[in-house]
Amino acid sequence: MLSIANATGPKPYLAGLLSGFLSCSLPVAAHTDGDIHLAHWWVSPGEQAGIAVIREYIERADLHFSDTAIPGSGTARYYQTLNQLLASGSTPTASQVIGYDIHLWARQGRLVSLDDVARKEEWNEVIPYAIQQLSMYDGHWYAAPFNVHSTNWLWVNQHQLEAIGGQEPDTWDDFIVLLEKARQAGIIGLAIGNEPWEQTLLFESVAAGVGGVPFYRRNFLELAPQSGDRETFEQAFGRMRKLQEFVGDEYTRMVWSDATQQVHNGEALLQVQGSWVDGEFTAENQQPGTDYQCFRFPDTQGMVLFNADQYMLLNESDASADTRRKLASLLMDSDLQRDVNLASGAIPARVDATRSAFGDCGQKAISDMRNANMRRTLMGSVAMGNAHPAPIKEAVYRIVARHFQGDINDRQASEQLVQVLTDSKSD
Ligand code: GAL
Protein backbone atom coordinates (compact mmCIF):
# COMPACT_ATOMS: atom_id res chain seq x y z
CA MET A 1 0.00 0.00 0.00
CA LEU A 2 1.08 3.50 -0.75
CA SER A 3 -0.03 5.55 2.20
CA ILE A 4 -0.31 9.29 1.98
CA ALA A 5 -0.37 9.88 5.72
CA ASN A 6 -1.54 8.24 8.87
CA ALA A 7 -5.01 9.57 9.57
CA THR A 8 -4.79 8.74 13.23
CA GLY A 9 -1.82 11.10 13.68
CA PRO A 10 -2.30 14.68 14.83
CA LYS A 11 -3.91 16.80 12.12
CA PRO A 12 -1.39 19.64 11.89
CA TYR A 13 1.15 17.26 10.34
CA LEU A 14 -1.22 16.28 7.60
CA ALA A 15 -0.83 19.23 5.27
CA GLY A 16 2.96 18.95 5.31
CA LEU A 17 2.88 15.23 4.71
CA LEU A 18 0.43 15.60 1.87
CA SER A 19 2.36 18.29 0.06
CA GLY A 20 5.58 16.30 0.51
CA PHE A 21 3.90 13.21 -0.82
CA LEU A 22 2.35 14.84 -3.80
CA SER A 23 5.58 16.32 -4.96
CA CYS A 24 6.89 12.83 -5.78
CA SER A 25 5.65 11.02 -8.84
CA LEU A 26 3.50 8.01 -8.16
CA PRO A 27 3.52 4.72 -9.96
CA VAL A 28 -0.16 4.17 -9.26
CA ALA A 29 -1.77 3.72 -12.68
CA ALA A 30 -2.83 0.23 -13.73
CA HIS A 31 -0.49 -0.90 -16.50
CA THR A 32 -1.18 -4.49 -17.38
CA ASP A 33 -4.57 -5.98 -17.98
CA GLY A 34 -5.82 -7.45 -14.73
CA ASP A 35 -4.14 -4.77 -12.61
CA ILE A 36 -6.51 -3.10 -10.21
CA HIS A 37 -5.40 -0.01 -8.35
CA LEU A 38 -7.77 1.28 -5.69
CA ALA A 39 -7.66 4.72 -4.09
CA HIS A 40 -9.38 4.91 -0.70
CA TRP A 41 -9.29 6.57 2.72
CA TRP A 42 -9.22 3.43 4.81
CA VAL A 43 -6.15 4.04 6.97
CA SER A 44 -7.15 3.10 10.54
CA PRO A 45 -6.59 -0.49 11.76
CA GLY A 46 -10.22 -1.58 11.28
CA GLU A 47 -10.37 0.05 7.88
CA GLN A 48 -7.08 -1.55 6.85
CA ALA A 49 -8.50 -4.93 7.83
CA GLY A 50 -11.36 -4.20 5.42
CA ILE A 51 -8.93 -3.37 2.60
CA ALA A 52 -7.04 -6.59 3.27
CA VAL A 53 -10.26 -8.52 2.58
CA ILE A 54 -10.88 -6.68 -0.68
CA ARG A 55 -7.31 -7.42 -1.69
CA GLU A 56 -7.75 -11.11 -0.91
CA TYR A 57 -10.85 -11.39 -3.10
CA ILE A 58 -9.21 -9.52 -5.97
CA GLU A 59 -6.13 -11.73 -5.84
CA ARG A 60 -8.22 -14.87 -5.59
CA ALA A 61 -9.87 -13.83 -8.86
CA ASP A 62 -6.39 -13.82 -10.46
CA LEU A 63 -6.24 -10.05 -10.65
CA HIS A 64 -3.38 -7.95 -9.36
CA PHE A 65 -4.10 -5.57 -6.48
CA SER A 66 -2.39 -2.32 -5.47
CA ASP A 67 -3.73 0.70 -3.61
CA THR A 68 -3.19 4.26 -2.44
CA ALA A 69 -4.52 5.31 0.94
CA ILE A 70 -5.38 8.98 1.27
CA PRO A 71 -6.76 10.04 4.65
CA GLY A 72 -9.77 12.30 4.82
CA SER A 73 -12.87 10.13 5.34
CA GLY A 74 -14.62 11.27 2.18
CA THR A 75 -14.08 14.98 2.75
CA ALA A 76 -12.92 17.64 0.28
CA ARG A 77 -9.37 16.93 1.51
CA TYR A 78 -9.56 13.39 0.09
CA TYR A 79 -11.02 14.36 -3.28
CA GLN A 80 -8.52 17.18 -3.72
CA THR A 81 -5.67 14.71 -3.42
CA LEU A 82 -7.44 12.25 -5.70
CA ASN A 83 -7.84 14.98 -8.29
CA GLN A 84 -4.14 15.75 -8.05
CA LEU A 85 -3.35 12.08 -8.67
CA LEU A 86 -5.57 12.10 -11.74
CA ALA A 87 -4.01 15.32 -13.01
CA SER A 88 -0.56 13.75 -12.70
CA GLY A 89 -1.68 10.90 -14.98
CA SER A 90 -1.83 8.35 -12.16
CA THR A 91 -5.48 7.40 -12.43
CA PRO A 92 -6.55 4.53 -10.18
CA THR A 93 -8.95 1.93 -11.55
CA ALA A 94 -11.48 2.90 -8.91
CA SER A 95 -11.85 5.18 -5.95
CA GLN A 96 -13.82 4.95 -2.74
CA VAL A 97 -16.64 7.48 -2.78
CA ILE A 98 -19.69 8.31 -0.73
CA GLY A 99 -23.04 9.96 -1.20
CA TYR A 100 -23.78 12.77 -3.60
CA ASP A 101 -20.14 13.04 -4.61
CA ILE A 102 -20.92 10.19 -7.01
CA HIS A 103 -23.33 12.46 -8.91
CA LEU A 104 -20.71 15.15 -9.15
CA TRP A 105 -18.16 12.81 -10.76
CA ALA A 106 -20.82 11.24 -13.00
CA ARG A 107 -22.05 14.65 -14.16
CA GLN A 108 -18.49 15.50 -15.22
CA GLY A 109 -18.47 12.37 -17.39
CA ARG A 110 -15.54 10.81 -15.53
CA LEU A 111 -17.15 7.52 -14.48
CA VAL A 112 -17.61 4.18 -16.16
CA SER A 113 -21.23 3.07 -16.42
CA LEU A 114 -21.85 -0.17 -14.51
CA ASP A 115 -25.26 -0.79 -16.09
CA ASP A 116 -24.34 -4.10 -17.75
CA VAL A 117 -23.17 -5.76 -14.55
CA ALA A 118 -25.97 -4.14 -12.55
CA ARG A 119 -28.62 -5.47 -14.91
CA LYS A 120 -27.15 -8.93 -15.07
CA GLU A 121 -26.76 -9.18 -11.30
CA GLU A 122 -30.04 -7.41 -10.50
CA TRP A 123 -28.53 -4.75 -8.25
CA ASN A 124 -31.80 -2.82 -8.22
CA GLU A 125 -33.50 -5.81 -6.56
CA VAL A 126 -31.06 -6.09 -3.67
CA ILE A 127 -29.86 -2.57 -2.88
CA PRO A 128 -32.11 -0.34 -0.74
CA TYR A 129 -33.75 2.38 -2.80
CA ALA A 130 -32.24 5.19 -0.68
CA ILE A 131 -28.77 3.90 -1.60
CA GLN A 132 -29.60 3.33 -5.28
CA GLN A 133 -30.46 7.02 -5.51
CA LEU A 134 -26.83 7.77 -4.69
CA SER A 135 -25.19 5.04 -6.79
CA MET A 136 -27.22 6.01 -9.86
CA TYR A 137 -27.15 9.21 -11.83
CA ASP A 138 -29.47 10.09 -14.67
CA GLY A 139 -30.85 6.55 -14.63
CA HIS A 140 -27.45 4.79 -14.83
CA TRP A 141 -25.36 2.92 -12.27
CA TYR A 142 -22.05 4.67 -11.64
CA ALA A 143 -20.93 3.20 -8.33
CA ALA A 144 -20.94 -0.14 -6.56
CA PRO A 145 -22.17 0.12 -2.95
CA PHE A 146 -20.37 -2.50 -0.90
CA ASN A 147 -21.46 -1.60 2.61
CA VAL A 148 -23.86 0.29 4.80
CA HIS A 149 -22.60 2.13 7.84
CA SER A 150 -24.87 3.94 10.21
CA THR A 151 -24.01 7.02 12.24
CA ASN A 152 -26.67 7.23 14.96
CA TRP A 153 -24.88 4.93 17.38
CA LEU A 154 -23.37 5.26 20.83
CA TRP A 155 -20.22 3.15 21.28
CA VAL A 156 -19.88 2.52 24.99
CA ASN A 157 -17.12 1.02 27.14
CA GLN A 158 -18.99 -1.79 28.90
CA HIS A 159 -16.57 -2.02 31.87
CA GLN A 160 -16.96 1.68 32.61
CA LEU A 161 -20.71 1.47 32.10
CA GLU A 162 -20.88 -1.20 34.80
CA ALA A 163 -18.44 0.64 37.06
CA ILE A 164 -20.64 3.74 37.11
CA GLY A 165 -23.87 1.75 37.37
CA GLY A 166 -25.15 3.11 34.04
CA GLN A 167 -27.57 1.62 31.55
CA GLU A 168 -28.72 2.07 27.96
CA PRO A 169 -30.24 5.55 27.65
CA ASP A 170 -33.60 5.55 25.87
CA THR A 171 -34.19 9.27 25.93
CA TRP A 172 -32.23 12.51 25.98
CA ASP A 173 -32.80 12.87 29.73
CA ASP A 174 -31.47 9.36 30.36
CA PHE A 175 -28.45 10.26 28.26
CA ILE A 176 -27.62 13.30 30.35
CA VAL A 177 -28.03 11.28 33.56
CA LEU A 178 -25.55 8.75 32.16
CA LEU A 179 -23.02 11.40 31.15
CA GLU A 180 -23.33 13.02 34.60
CA LYS A 181 -22.48 9.69 36.20
CA ALA A 182 -19.34 9.49 34.10
CA ARG A 183 -18.37 12.99 35.13
CA GLN A 184 -18.86 12.19 38.79
CA ALA A 185 -16.68 9.12 38.38
CA GLY A 186 -13.93 11.31 36.89
CA ILE A 187 -14.01 9.95 33.35
CA ILE A 188 -14.70 11.74 30.10
CA GLY A 189 -18.35 11.28 29.19
CA LEU A 190 -18.22 11.96 25.47
CA ALA A 191 -15.13 11.36 23.34
CA ILE A 192 -15.00 13.27 20.06
CA GLY A 193 -12.38 14.57 17.64
CA ASN A 194 -12.00 18.09 16.38
CA GLU A 195 -13.10 17.74 12.78
CA PRO A 196 -16.18 19.51 11.43
CA TRP A 197 -17.55 16.28 9.93
CA GLU A 198 -17.38 14.59 13.35
CA GLN A 199 -19.22 17.42 15.05
CA THR A 200 -21.80 17.35 12.27
CA LEU A 201 -22.17 13.61 12.75
CA LEU A 202 -23.05 14.24 16.38
CA PHE A 203 -25.36 17.07 15.40
CA GLU A 204 -27.36 14.98 12.92
CA SER A 205 -28.24 12.45 15.62
CA VAL A 206 -29.13 15.19 18.06
CA ALA A 207 -31.32 16.92 15.44
CA ALA A 208 -32.98 13.62 14.45
CA GLY A 209 -33.69 12.95 18.14
CA VAL A 210 -35.25 16.36 18.71
CA GLY A 211 -37.21 16.64 15.47
CA GLY A 212 -37.98 13.04 14.46
CA VAL A 213 -38.22 11.43 11.02
CA PRO A 214 -40.41 13.96 9.12
CA PHE A 215 -38.27 16.83 10.41
CA TYR A 216 -35.01 15.16 9.36
CA ARG A 217 -36.39 14.16 5.98
CA ARG A 218 -37.93 17.55 5.25
CA ASN A 219 -34.92 19.61 6.23
CA PHE A 220 -31.92 17.53 5.25
CA LEU A 221 -33.18 15.36 2.38
CA GLU A 222 -35.82 17.58 0.81
CA LEU A 223 -34.21 20.90 1.80
CA ALA A 224 -37.62 22.33 2.63
CA PRO A 225 -37.68 23.81 6.15
CA GLN A 226 -41.14 24.71 7.44
CA SER A 227 -42.22 27.26 9.98
CA GLY A 228 -41.29 26.03 13.44
CA ASP A 229 -38.22 24.13 12.19
CA ARG A 230 -35.86 26.95 13.13
CA GLU A 231 -36.99 26.63 16.74
CA THR A 232 -36.40 22.87 16.60
CA PHE A 233 -32.89 23.47 15.29
CA GLU A 234 -32.30 25.98 18.06
CA GLN A 235 -33.22 23.31 20.57
CA ALA A 236 -30.84 20.87 18.86
CA PHE A 237 -28.00 23.39 19.05
CA GLY A 238 -28.86 23.91 22.73
CA ARG A 239 -28.37 20.16 23.21
CA MET A 240 -25.02 20.32 21.40
CA ARG A 241 -23.93 22.99 23.87
CA LYS A 242 -25.02 20.79 26.76
CA LEU A 243 -23.06 17.83 25.37
CA GLN A 244 -19.90 19.92 25.24
CA GLU A 245 -19.89 19.93 29.04
CA PHE A 246 -18.94 16.27 28.87
CA VAL A 247 -16.13 16.53 26.29
CA GLY A 248 -12.49 16.41 27.50
CA ASP A 249 -10.22 19.43 26.86
CA GLU A 250 -7.80 17.45 24.69
CA TYR A 251 -10.45 16.94 21.99
CA THR A 252 -8.97 19.84 20.01
CA ARG A 253 -5.96 17.67 19.17
CA MET A 254 -7.91 14.53 18.31
CA VAL A 255 -9.57 12.79 15.34
CA TRP A 256 -12.33 10.17 15.53
CA SER A 257 -10.01 7.17 15.90
CA ASP A 258 -8.22 8.83 18.87
CA ALA A 259 -11.64 9.20 20.47
CA THR A 260 -12.27 5.49 19.84
CA GLN A 261 -8.99 4.75 21.63
CA GLN A 262 -10.16 6.79 24.62
CA VAL A 263 -13.30 4.67 24.82
CA HIS A 264 -11.27 1.51 24.38
CA ASN A 265 -8.86 2.49 27.19
CA GLY A 266 -11.70 3.47 29.48
CA GLU A 267 -10.56 7.10 29.65
CA ALA A 268 -13.92 7.93 28.11
CA LEU A 269 -17.32 6.33 28.55
CA LEU A 270 -18.63 6.64 25.02
CA GLN A 271 -18.36 8.02 21.54
CA VAL A 272 -21.09 8.94 19.05
CA GLN A 273 -19.76 7.74 15.70
CA GLY A 274 -20.41 5.61 12.68
CA SER A 275 -20.20 1.84 12.80
CA TRP A 276 -16.56 1.97 11.64
CA VAL A 277 -15.89 2.12 15.40
CA ASP A 278 -17.09 -1.49 15.51
CA GLY A 279 -14.27 -2.27 13.05
CA GLU A 280 -11.73 -0.64 15.38
CA PHE A 281 -12.94 -2.62 18.38
CA THR A 282 -12.92 -5.82 16.34
CA ALA A 283 -9.33 -5.08 15.24
CA GLU A 284 -8.46 -4.84 18.99
CA ASN A 285 -10.19 -8.15 19.78
CA GLN A 286 -12.86 -6.43 21.84
CA GLN A 287 -16.12 -8.33 22.26
CA PRO A 288 -19.52 -6.66 21.85
CA GLY A 289 -21.63 -7.20 24.96
CA THR A 290 -18.54 -7.88 27.10
CA ASP A 291 -16.11 -5.07 26.35
CA TYR A 292 -18.32 -2.62 24.53
CA GLN A 293 -21.92 -1.90 23.64
CA CYS A 294 -23.66 -0.36 20.66
CA PHE A 295 -26.82 1.53 21.55
CA ARG A 296 -28.89 3.62 19.19
CA PHE A 297 -28.57 7.34 19.89
CA PRO A 298 -31.37 8.21 22.34
CA ASP A 299 -34.67 9.20 20.68
CA THR A 300 -33.50 7.95 17.24
CA GLN A 301 -34.42 4.28 17.71
CA GLY A 302 -36.10 3.08 14.51
CA MET A 303 -34.13 5.46 12.31
CA VAL A 304 -30.99 4.50 10.46
CA LEU A 305 -28.87 7.44 9.35
CA PHE A 306 -26.72 5.73 6.78
CA ASN A 307 -23.45 6.13 4.98
CA ALA A 308 -22.79 3.61 2.22
CA ASP A 309 -19.23 3.21 0.99
CA GLN A 310 -19.02 2.73 -2.74
CA TYR A 311 -16.39 2.43 -5.44
CA MET A 312 -16.61 4.49 -8.62
CA LEU A 313 -14.63 3.28 -11.63
CA LEU A 314 -12.72 6.06 -13.38
CA ASN A 315 -12.85 6.14 -17.13
CA GLU A 316 -9.43 7.78 -17.40
CA SER A 317 -7.77 4.63 -16.03
CA ASP A 318 -6.32 2.16 -18.48
CA ALA A 319 -8.09 -0.93 -17.11
CA SER A 320 -9.85 -3.06 -19.73
CA ALA A 321 -13.63 -3.42 -19.87
CA ASP A 322 -13.25 -7.00 -18.68
CA THR A 323 -11.17 -6.05 -15.63
CA ARG A 324 -13.68 -3.32 -14.78
CA ARG A 325 -16.59 -5.75 -15.04
CA LYS A 326 -14.81 -8.22 -12.80
CA LEU A 327 -14.09 -5.55 -10.19
CA ALA A 328 -17.69 -4.27 -10.14
CA SER A 329 -19.01 -7.78 -9.83
CA LEU A 330 -16.58 -8.68 -7.03
CA LEU A 331 -17.50 -5.61 -4.99
CA MET A 332 -21.14 -6.67 -5.06
CA ASP A 333 -20.39 -10.32 -4.31
CA SER A 334 -22.29 -11.52 -1.21
CA ASP A 335 -19.26 -13.27 0.27
CA LEU A 336 -16.97 -10.29 -0.23
CA GLN A 337 -19.57 -8.00 1.32
CA ARG A 338 -19.93 -10.33 4.30
CA ASP A 339 -16.19 -10.60 4.91
CA VAL A 340 -15.22 -7.00 4.32
CA ASN A 341 -17.96 -5.82 6.63
CA LEU A 342 -17.12 -8.30 9.36
CA ALA A 343 -13.70 -6.65 9.38
CA SER A 344 -14.66 -3.00 9.01
CA GLY A 345 -17.77 -2.80 11.19
CA ALA A 346 -20.36 -2.11 8.50
CA ILE A 347 -22.98 -4.46 7.08
CA PRO A 348 -23.56 -5.59 3.50
CA ALA A 349 -25.40 -3.14 1.26
CA ARG A 350 -27.53 -6.06 0.08
CA VAL A 351 -30.87 -6.67 1.78
CA ASP A 352 -30.45 -10.40 1.12
CA ALA A 353 -27.41 -10.65 3.43
CA THR A 354 -27.55 -13.31 6.13
CA ARG A 355 -27.18 -12.18 9.72
CA SER A 356 -25.61 -15.26 11.23
CA ALA A 357 -21.93 -14.49 10.57
CA PHE A 358 -22.15 -11.11 12.31
CA GLY A 359 -21.62 -10.16 15.95
CA ASP A 360 -24.28 -8.55 18.14
CA CYS A 361 -23.81 -5.06 16.73
CA GLY A 362 -23.75 -6.23 13.10
CA GLN A 363 -26.90 -8.34 13.61
CA LYS A 364 -28.68 -5.40 15.19
CA ALA A 365 -27.55 -3.19 12.31
CA ILE A 366 -28.81 -5.64 9.66
CA SER A 367 -32.25 -5.89 11.31
CA ASP A 368 -32.39 -2.12 11.78
CA MET A 369 -31.51 -1.51 8.13
CA ARG A 370 -34.15 -3.91 6.84
CA ASN A 371 -36.84 -2.37 9.04
CA ALA A 372 -35.78 1.16 8.21
CA ASN A 373 -35.74 0.34 4.50
CA MET A 374 -39.34 -0.86 4.67
CA ARG A 375 -40.52 2.06 6.76
CA ARG A 376 -38.60 4.75 4.86
CA THR A 377 -36.55 5.67 7.90
CA LEU A 378 -33.29 4.74 6.20
CA MET A 379 -32.07 8.29 5.66
CA GLY A 380 -28.75 9.61 4.38
CA SER A 381 -26.23 10.96 6.87
CA VAL A 382 -25.65 14.70 6.59
CA ALA A 383 -22.07 14.50 7.84
CA MET A 384 -21.13 11.81 5.36
CA GLY A 385 -22.66 13.54 2.34
CA ASN A 386 -25.43 10.99 1.86
CA ALA A 387 -28.21 13.51 2.53
CA HIS A 388 -27.47 16.27 0.04
CA PRO A 389 -24.70 17.56 -2.29
CA ALA A 390 -21.28 18.55 -0.97
CA PRO A 391 -21.63 22.37 -1.07
CA ILE A 392 -24.63 22.16 1.29
CA LYS A 393 -22.88 19.61 3.49
CA GLU A 394 -19.89 21.90 3.77
CA ALA A 395 -22.03 24.90 4.65
CA VAL A 396 -23.60 22.79 7.42
CA TYR A 397 -20.12 21.75 8.63
CA ARG A 398 -19.11 25.39 8.92
CA ILE A 399 -22.15 26.35 10.97
CA VAL A 400 -21.91 23.36 13.28
CA ALA A 401 -18.15 23.86 13.78
CA ARG A 402 -18.49 27.59 14.47
CA HIS A 403 -21.19 26.83 17.01
CA PHE A 404 -19.03 24.09 18.56
CA GLN A 405 -16.16 26.55 18.91
CA GLY A 406 -18.48 29.02 20.59
CA ASP A 407 -18.29 31.64 17.82
CA ILE A 408 -22.07 31.71 17.33
CA ASN A 409 -24.95 30.98 19.70
CA ASP A 410 -27.86 28.55 19.36
CA ARG A 411 -30.16 31.09 17.79
CA GLN A 412 -27.60 32.36 15.25
CA ALA A 413 -26.65 28.80 14.31
CA SER A 414 -30.27 27.79 13.75
CA GLU A 415 -30.99 30.90 11.68
CA GLN A 416 -27.94 30.32 9.51
CA LEU A 417 -28.77 26.68 9.05
CA VAL A 418 -32.35 27.30 7.94
CA GLN A 419 -31.04 29.94 5.58
CA VAL A 420 -28.56 27.53 4.01
CA LEU A 421 -31.18 24.83 3.57
CA THR A 422 -33.74 27.24 2.13
CA ASP A 423 -31.26 28.83 -0.29
CA SER A 424 -30.05 25.43 -1.43
CA LYS A 425 -33.54 24.38 -2.39
CA SER A 426 -34.06 27.44 -4.53
CA ASP A 427 -30.64 27.12 -6.25
C1 GAL B 1 -16.45 7.25 6.20
C2 GAL B 1 -16.45 5.89 5.57
C3 GAL B 1 -16.32 4.84 6.58
C4 GAL B 1 -15.16 5.13 7.51
C5 GAL B 1 -15.23 6.54 8.02
C6 GAL B 1 -14.07 6.96 8.93
O1 GAL B 1 -16.47 8.22 5.22
O2 GAL B 1 -17.62 5.75 4.84
O3 GAL B 1 -16.18 3.61 5.95
O4 GAL B 1 -14.02 4.91 6.81
O5 GAL B 1 -15.29 7.45 6.97
O6 GAL B 1 -12.87 7.04 8.25
From TrEMBL:
<keyword id="KW-0732">Signal</keyword>
<comment type="similarity">
    <text>Belongs to the bacterial solute-binding protein 1 family.</text>
</comment>
<dbReference type="InterPro" id="IPR006059">
    <property type="entry name" value="SBP"/>
</dbReference>
<comment type="function">
    <text>Part of a binding-protein-dependent transport system for a sugar.</text>
</comment>
<keyword id="KW-0813">Transport</keyword>
<dbReference type="InterPro" id="IPR050490">
    <property type="entry name" value="Bact_solute-bd_prot1"/>
</dbReference>
<dbReference type="GO" id="GO:0042597">
    <property type="term" value="C:periplasmic space"/>
</dbReference>
<protein>
    <recommendedName>
        <fullName>Probable sugar-binding periplasmic protein</fullName>
    </recommendedName>
</protein>
<dbReference type="Pfam" id="PF01547">
    <property type="entry name" value="SBP_bac_1"/>
</dbReference>
